[in-house]
Amino acid sequence: MHTWKDITEPGTIDDLIADAHAAGYPAMNERLIHSWIAKGLLDQPLLRTLRRGSQKAEHSVNQRRLLLLLLDKRSQVAHLSALAQVPLAMWLWWDGYVSTRQAQRAWVTWVGRGRRSQEVAREGALGLLEQVGHQLATPTARARFVRMITELGNGKPLTVRGRAELLDAVRDVMEPDTVFAASGLVRVLGPAQTPMTVETVIGLVEALSIALGRTLKGKVDGALLERARAVYRASTADYLAQRGGLATEAGQLAHLFREPTLQEQFDQAGRQLLLVLGMHLLHCRTRVG
Q: Which residue among 49, 78, 159, 253 has the highest number of C-beta atoms inside a 10 angstrom radius?
């Protein structure tokens, strides 16, 4: 079986197709390669010009290997757009594997439009609910929380009235009346250095909404993505340095600070970049305001 370890040199589109066939994917052809390039799953090849005429453009060793990784993971995702998280993750964590121009196309593919962008917004809402929702929050409160955040992620403006309603929705899932109303307590998640309160969650929701809105309007360019990546790498380095202490202080919530598997990191790359991009945009807007 042909694997990525067998690939040691750049190759043309013919080589990519041969790689796929040798690895057990006979359906791969030139049309699909071009389609995957347009979606950012693969990068554009480099042209090779000779004194007389030119040779076929070449894909790098890393791009040839990326193709096999994508083919291996294709059966694990329902939609091709979800596969865009693979090059996004590689661009987010490592240099030299995926170019920013490819990451920008992959980002647009992952967010998508219409039903796909609704799915991304809903996934973000469900992920946030899983992180902050109290186990005794009612199904009605949970459904309202997910619905409101999904709508905001798809472009619904956050008005003054809408923010008040969102505050109620967040509080209903974080601090259900059956637990907190009589006591007057306020729920705070996480360690003392980075407490997550109702207001903190509101900020995360606003960030999610801003990032999706900018992307759907076509206003997220390569430079903005690179700034978000720099913020992500810096914050991740700080987090990794403190993770052990944070887990100790978190007590029953220590599982939130465990090291994710490689598969989980790939699956979460889009959502992590979405949140960091939104927080960066929110910070810039606040600073200007």
A: 253
Secondary structure, 3-state, the chain = CCCHHHCCCCECHHHHHHHHHHCCCCCCCHHHHHHHHHCCCCCCCEEEECCCCEEEEEECHHHHHHHHHHHHHHCCCCCHHHHHHHHHHHHHHCCCCCCHHHHHHHHHHHHCCCHHHHHHHHHHHHHHHHHHCCCCCCHHHHHHHHHHHHHHHCCCCCCHHHHHHHHHHHHHHHCCHHHHCCCCCCCCECCCCCCECHHHHHHHHHHHHHHHHHHHCCCCCHHHHHHHHHHHHHHHHHHHHHHHHHHHHHHHHHHHHCCCCHHHHHHHHHHHHHHHHHHHHHHHHHHHC
How would you classify the pairing of strands 54-58 and 46-49? antiparallel
The sign of the dihedral angle between the CA atoms of 48, 49, 50, 56 is positive
pLDDT in tens for each of the 289 residues of the chain?
677 678 999 999 999 999 999 999 999 999 999 999 999 999 999 886 655 545 778 999 999 999 999 999 998 888 889 899 999 999 998 888 999 999 999 999 999 888 888 888 898 889 889 888 888 899 999 999 999 999 988 878 888 898 899 999 998 998 887 666 555 455 555 544 456 688 888 888 888 888 988 998 999 999 999 999 999 888 876 544 554 554 555 555 555 555 666 677 777 888 889 989 999 998 887 665 5
| Burial call 143-153: b when 16+ CB within 10 Å, e when fewer | ebbbebbbbbb
Distance CA 58, CA 51 (A): 17
- Rounded to 5 degrees, φ, ψ at 23 are -90, 0
**Backbone phi, psi, residue 46, to 5°:** -90, 130
| Bridge partners for 49 per DSSP | 54
